[in-house]
Design goal:
Blueprint lengths: L7 H14 L3 H19 L7 H15 L3 H14 L8
Length: 90
């Protein structure tokens, strides 16, 4: 069997995941897909998935992947200004 992915960003993400986890690229993809499938299935225990929710989650994953450490720090600072330690608005 063969899976041919022609997307450089996806290749880079797989290489990075494999490097960080010490897995082969194939194992990293298998693990990531299995985890994502479990996540999606847990969102829809009835077997019906709200595709809009899945789309939103996918967009959030892409957004977070592009954040630099500086971006993450700025977001954390903004959250600290807006919300207290319990997550309630100040």
């Amino acid at each position: 069997m063969s899976l041919n992915i022609k997307n450089e960003r996806t290749h880079a993400l797989v290489r990075r995941l494999a490097h960080l986890t010490g897995q082969s690229q194939t194992a990293a993809v298998e693990d990531a897909v299995a985890r994502r499938l479990a996540e999606v299935e847990s969102l829809a225990p009835t077997g019906h998935v709200d595709t809009r929710w899945v789309d939103v989650q996918h967009l959030l994953v892409e957004y977070r992947a592009d954040l630099t450490p500086q971006d993450r720090a700025r977001i954390a600072d903004a959250d600290a200004d807006l919300y207290d330690e319990r997550g309630l608005p100040r």
